[in-house]
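Hey,

The postdoc asked me to send both predictions to you directly instead of through the lab channel. I've kept everything plain text so nothing gets mangled by the mail client. Protein one:
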Amino acid sequence: MSTDAVDPGPVFWKGKRILIVSPEAWGAVRLSKHHYASKLKDHGAQVFFLGPDSTKENEIRILSESEAQPVLLFRPPPLRGIRFLPQAVRAWLEARQMRRLASVAGGPFDLLWNFDLYRFRWITDRTYARTRIVHAMDLRNPAHFPGPARRADLVIVVSATMAKVLVEQQHKVLRISHGWLPRERRAVTLPAFKEGIRVGYLGNLAMPVIDWSGILKIASDHSIVQIHLIGPLHGTFGEDTHMDPTVEARLRALPNVHLTGPVPFNEVPKWLEAMDILLIAYDPEHADRNVGHPHKLLEYLASGKVVLSNYLEDQADLEGLVVMAPQGRRITPLFDQVLRELEDLNTPGLQAKRKAYAMANSYDRKVAQVAARLSALWRSSDH
């Protein structure tokens, strides 16, 4: 299993036609698959982005096209019950779907970069997509991974823990940790903050795995703390998800909890730098989150500020940069310790180390790793 490779240079991507399939729609909030799409476009690739299936569409079509973003493709949901058909039939239907997507997009794709384990998982025909990558960012059901990986040409995982799920496909695996996207810094006017220690949580606030009981306890027990919850409350990335109304009511009832809503991507760094403590708080009863790989971690580290997190197995080596709860434990008992040691945890030296770690994981480096592996794969297939 490879973790790095020689960079063949951004020129590798120039002119390549790439279809990115994502479970999260293109929008104001950006995750890894959106950053990969933007970076590939920056390197000269022609990038098409297929988000979640749209119930508003009757046929495959381009719904949005601009120089500032990839070409957005939309398709209606497939017929219900397809998963019960024989495997060969499913593969044929997916190949036909890929042909239709290529027709709408103006020709075959050089690369199908699939961040969604549940679409095109049976496809083996490479007529309209020369190469297929399966890229796993989260693995909430490990049993669902080997099938799509078996039919892929390259499998990308963000951690060694994910790779352990695959037995027969180890020769296809490329491990690339989450990336961080530097962006142009613009003048941003933040709201007037109330006096106190500022604690930030960034992300989709509708996620059911967030440890709201722990966050509520921190807010209730520490009146000197001002907690800023930065992100959408209800529905994002094309999903129909909502925060528990009981939780929302309890949060709004606390004077030191502030629901900011989603923040524009380019303003996120300014918000995080204004905080004193940043939280990653998942309910430890959700076992999949004990080995989670939150994309927000690099955004946090890029701010330089101390991060208090529940246990993240694949980031356990970040001791000194992240204050991490023991496995299976909540972050709440550690919060008082972080408050006591806050000045030492946010020294200029430690902040510089956190920022350097984020910079070392830029998306330029990530796409270079993929380019090197694909370059070798295509050379071998041409012989």
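Protein two:
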Amino acid sequence: MNKLEGFYQLQSLGIPVVPWRQFTDQENLDSSMLWTIRVAVGQGDDMNLPRAVGVTAETAMEVGRLLLNRYGDTGLVVYYPYFIALKSGTLEIAAEATIIEAVKDDLWNLTTDGSRDVTVVVDRHTGHITFYGKSDFLKSNEIEQLVACARKVRTRLKDYIYVHSSVLLEWSYAVNTDVQHRPIGEVYLVFYECRTIKA
């Protein structure tokens, strides 16, 4: 499963996902908000593809046009409202366990810098939880919510899990923001990437 398949797969899982839409260059983006615009390709290397994160509506439109010109025939350009990540991480659903890795703020702190506040391993059969790192970093209701999402993914993608070893999702506990980076509204869980990991 590549990024493009992952975008579509996320929508079918019954978990909270970013409200992405396909960019067509006909959008009228709200200038009071910040935006994220990304690309996913159907074939070939889909890691480290260009994107613009937390940019104005005007910049998002400019970047969107560039991405559409470059990738429009081979992939999908998507956009969604930018959010401020308070906690982020990965959720790995493997045959025998669910593994949550979490870090303060943005996921890049984990994926790029290698920082990690906690790893939580939940045994699939017994429900036993093992913590590595700061056991109080995630609240119990946050762990419960992530594990509940993992159960849904496990049910819907069981063939991927047993054939490819595991499914990995990226998530954040986030809050919306205005164009001045001021938080708006309540904190919510959101998933924004899904892919398979081969054994």
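Summary for protein two, as requested: Strands lie at 21-22, 35-41, 51-55, 75-81, 83-94, 97-104, 118-123, 129-133, 166-177, 183-197.

Thanks,
C.
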